[in-house]
């Protein structure tokens, strides 16, 4: 199968540098335009199915990018990393109140451990399991999946064999970036596009 992974458009909380996690934010006008522009680029592609995180910002992105999609499956398993007590706070405030965890999040994500939040290992396991379920249902088909930056990146790290301590290394998952992974019947995956850039990683 060919899996097209899309991050949501810009949100009001992206603009404010506020921590989203699984809390709901909404697309800005720019975010809506980003989704529409992406949809224009992908219009000629025939997708057998559309999946989306159940979050508001991904639902909105899906609506604007794929307005003619007849059926979209919204899954909680595709939601962003759950950041518990951090959600809704400004990044700058967390950097001041919990500098060690903040440093772990951005510089040593394999060490990130905040009570009531997911770890990056938790996130990656969830992402890999969700994609495996989708791939099993759509062998040989082309599927669009709208989700979140960290969730998508955690899956791409898995495919390319990148350890989680290098999680935030480029490419950057900018708003409405588009990645493509080809998955064979025996489960082998190859990244052919990473955040809009052609690549050739294999596992």
List keywords for this structure.
alpha/beta, Rossmann fold, 7 helices, 37% helix
Structural summary, described in words:
- The protein is of the alpha/beta class.
- The mean pLDDT is 96.
- The protein contains 7 helices and 7 strands.
- The chain has a 7-stranded mixed sheet, sandwiched between helices.
- Helix 2 crosses helix 3, helix 4 packs across helix 5 and helix 6 (120-137) packs across helix 7.
- The protein has a single domain (2-202), classed as Rossmann fold (3-Layer(aba) Sandwich).
- Helices cover 37% and strands 19% of the residues.
TL;DR?
The chain has helices spanning 12-16, 29-42, 56-65, 91-97, 99-107, 120-137, 149-160; strands at 2-7, 49-53, 72-75, 142-147, 178-183, 189-194, 197-202. With 203 residues, the chain is an alpha/beta fold. It has one domain (2-202): Rossmann fold, CATH 3.40.50.
Write the layout of secondary structure elements.
Elements lengths: L1 E6 L4 H5 L12 H14 L6 E5 L2 H10 L6 E4 L15 H7 L1 H9 L12 H18 L4 E6 L1 H12 L17 E6 L5 E6 L2 E6 L1
């Amino acid at each position: 199968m060919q899996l097209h992974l899309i991050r949501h458009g810009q949100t009001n909380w992206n603009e404010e540098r506020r921590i989203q996690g699984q809390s709901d934010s909404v697309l800005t006008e720019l975010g809506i335009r980003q989704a529409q522009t992406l949809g224009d680029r992908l219009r000629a592609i025939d997708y057998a199915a559309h999946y989306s995180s159940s979050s508001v910002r991904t639902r909105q992105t899906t609506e604007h990018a794929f307005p003619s999609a007849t059926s979209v499956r919204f899954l909680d398993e595709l939601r962003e990393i759950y950041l518990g007590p951090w959600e809704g706070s400004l990044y700058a405030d967390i950097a001041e109140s919990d500098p060690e965890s903040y440093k772990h999040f951005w510089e040593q994500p394999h060490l990130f451990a905040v009570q009531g939040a997911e770890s990056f290992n938790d996130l990656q396991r969830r992402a890999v399991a969700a994609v495996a379920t989708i791939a099993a249902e759509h062998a040989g088909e082309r599927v669009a999946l709208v989700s979140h930056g960290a969730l998508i990146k955690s899956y791409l790290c898995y495919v390319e064999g990148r350890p989680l301590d290098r999680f935030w290394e480029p490419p950057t998952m900018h708003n409405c970036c588009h990645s493509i992974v080809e998955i064979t019947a025996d489960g082998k995956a190859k990244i052919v596009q990473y955040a809009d850039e052609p690549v050739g990683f294999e596992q």
